[in-house]
């Protein structure tokens, strides 16, 4: 079984890092370390070492803790094959379907997903427990009530393909662990487009009831399908379609899934 610790870094970009431990073996991985001192303090408090670092992609805010942790713990740094030259201390590429922190029986592990779009060197990690997906660590591919941008080395059409082929298919019960806390701002965008979405209104009320920078809502994909506009474009309401058309200035905009997704991504870039 995997033990998951979410670490809010209090960085300007509101990054999350994650420390995950396989309870059967004691092997530990850190996903996207931002602050090596913060992560080292947690590991020392728990008397854990750090076997691996996984960087979901090459952007500095997801790799800035690599050097300090590698020097202190001698961790092996794993990342997308296309990130081997740009991720600090990268030593081993990860291929689709590779497993990390697998228990001896092969029932509990993290499975590598190749997820280009935000960049072309992006991976996500799917948690499997007893042959069932239970959570996914999404870096900058999927956020609470949003998806990643493509401004720094990505492509929105590739991002759409990744989201539609991989994430639309995940069960409702899978928990979402993103690389940043953008929930409230993303909900504001969702309500800006579709103020009639009662689920988004309720989600905003819940989010605003959390202690700022101390409490965080771990949504699941069932919840995301109620208020994340990038998931709602698969079966859009009339009010969402109207909002997208009005905000884009394209009153004759087609309502197929791909067109709505790409238009949403463009609108979010400018919002």
Protein architecture, described:
- This protein has helices at 36-46, 66-73, 156-167, 183-193, 198-208, 221-227, 229-232, 238-248, 257-270; strands spanning 2-8, 16-22, 28-31, 52-54, 76-79, 90-93, 99-100, 108-114, 123-129, 132-139, 142-143, 146-147, 175-178.
- By secondary structure, it is α/β, with parallel strands linked by helices.
- The chain folds into two domains: 2-178, Metallo-beta-lactamase, Chain A (4-Layer Sandwich), CATH 3.60.15; 183-270, no CATH class.
- The strands form three sheets. It has a six-stranded mixed sheet, with no helix packed on it.
- Helix 1 packs parallel to helix 2 (66-73), helix 4 runs antiparallel to helix 5 (198-208) and helix 8 (238-248) crosses helix 9.
- The longest helix is centred in the C-terminal third of the chain and has 14 residues, at 257-270.
- The model has no long low-confidence stretch (mean pLDDT 97).
Short description:
The protein is of the alpha/beta class and 271 residues long. 33% of the residues lie in helices and 23% in strands.
Question: What's the helix and strand layout?
Answer:
Elements: E1 2-8, E2 16-22, E3 28-31, H1 36-46, E4 52-54, H2 66-73, E5 76-79, E6 90-93, E7 99-100, E8 108-114, E9 123-129, E10 132-139, E11 142-143, E12 146-147, H3 156-167, E13 175-178, H4 183-193, H5 198-208, H6 221-227, H7 229-232, H8 238-248, H9 257-270
Parallel strand pairs: 3-4, 4-5, 5-6, 10-13
Antiparallel strand pairs: 1-2, 2-3, 7-8, 8-9, 9-10, 11-12
